[in-house]
Amino acid sequence: MTLAPEQKRTDSSTSGPAGSGAAAGSGGHGRTDIDRLINERVPGYSLAAPFYISPEFFARDIEAIFASTWIFVASAAEVPEAGDYLTIDIGAYSVIVIRDDDGEIRAHHNVCRHRGTRLLNDLSGSVGNIVCGYHQWTYTPSGELISAGAQAPGFDRSCFSLRSVNLRVIGGLIFICLSPTPPDDIDEVADVIEPYLSGHDIAGTKVAAQSDLIEDSNWKLVMENNRECYHCEAGHPELTCTFFPTYGYEPDEIPKRLQPAYQRYLDAEEQLHADCDRNGLPYALVEELSGRPTGFRIERAALDGKGESYTMDGSAASARLLGDLDTFVLGRASLHVQPNMWFHAMGDHVVTFSLLPLAEDKTLVRTTWLVHADAEEGVDYELDNLTTVWLKTNEQDATFCERGQLGISSPAYVPGPYAPTESQVDDFVTWYIERLKAHREQRTVQLEGAERR
């Protein structure tokens, strides 16, 4: 059973670097202005307003980020059988992710090789072959053209297969890259994160629920909000039910009244490590959020309450353990991959999050809950219990992000400093600027090469 997609939401100091909404909101921004603002970014401060509100910056983001880096799009459980597919829209691009007849997951541009018609128009479904609705050119799920009607003598069908998109499945998570030369560090990233995921057997799960939320905010605000919990204590009462009261404190700063809670946390971490060692699961923090094309962060940490899952009391939401795990008390394995993905895996279920930019002030956030393939709704799990924490949290975050978009759009906005607890936000913005600069340098080299020719 899948939750119905949610509709568009309708509620909607003078020190530091320059970059007010007044300057940003007047007129367009050419390449020179964009390049200047990229160069002028001040570390430790939020970005200038045009990064969040300018259509020209949005176009650069699609080109330099979403069409050039590895993007998380789905889990393998979302295309379980041959012919099952999803369509993913990224700017002007549309991509088909489909499982072929041999069980391999593939990605193709959603463009007919005849005259360019879009092939599949639904968000998901199942097909025997991919048939263009215009002139019935027909492709296998693997992308080969098998029928094109009457053609001129010498027409070679093998020259007109669907254009493929680079795809990697890492521990049951599907990533694509639209660039013909994708970042090659994905192999290193896969080697690190797959051991954290393999015990949960994501390929052996099924979709219990999926929710789409369209937020009236720039995609970067959504990612920045996700990368800090400065706002969590007051903003997320459901989520923080499973956070230890000492979350966010440095060990030497914990007040006396919270020392018992801190000891409870230490005991839970010790138990978690023992459970992980027994199940062959790594738990150490690995954080490489900037300084590389595919920035990521992964760790496994204990949960408070019963320590089993993201529910209101920390107890398991599904009675079926994932994979071959032997206990529910495995905390949560949390993964973040730049620029559009965060993820939590517990002993009983997995929840994935992805975002796709729709416009400079509009972002799709998709949340998917995965349970054991044999788990039965109403017997092993209840949807409300499974989804409440993150449905509530997503709605709260959407409000924060939309208010952020409104504030940044004001002529009064100037970039402000990140707090120490917002270091991952600064890392994300640093990575983002690195990618913009790398793309600019690559484009310059290409242009100079073309001129020499």
From TrEMBL:
Amino acid composition bias (Basic and acidic residues), ranges on this chain: 1-11
Sorted UniProt keywords: 2Fe-2S, Iron, Iron-sulfur, Metal-binding, Oxidoreductase
Region (Disordered): 1-31
Composition skew (Gly residues), residue ranges: 18-29
The protein's required cofactors: Fe cation
A Gene Ontology molecular function term of the record: 2 iron, 2 sulfur cluster binding
InterPro entries per UniProt: Rieske_2Fe-2S (IPR017941), Rieske_2Fe-2S_sf (IPR036922), Ring_hydroxy_dOase_asu_C_dom (IPR015879), Rng_hydr_dOase-A (IPR001663)
CDD domains: RHO_alpha_C_GbcA-like (cd08884), Rieske_RO_Alpha_N (cd03469)
Domain annotation Rieske: ranges: 70-176
Name by which UniProt lists this protein: Rieske 2Fe-2S family protein
Organism, scientific name: Brevibacterium siliguriense
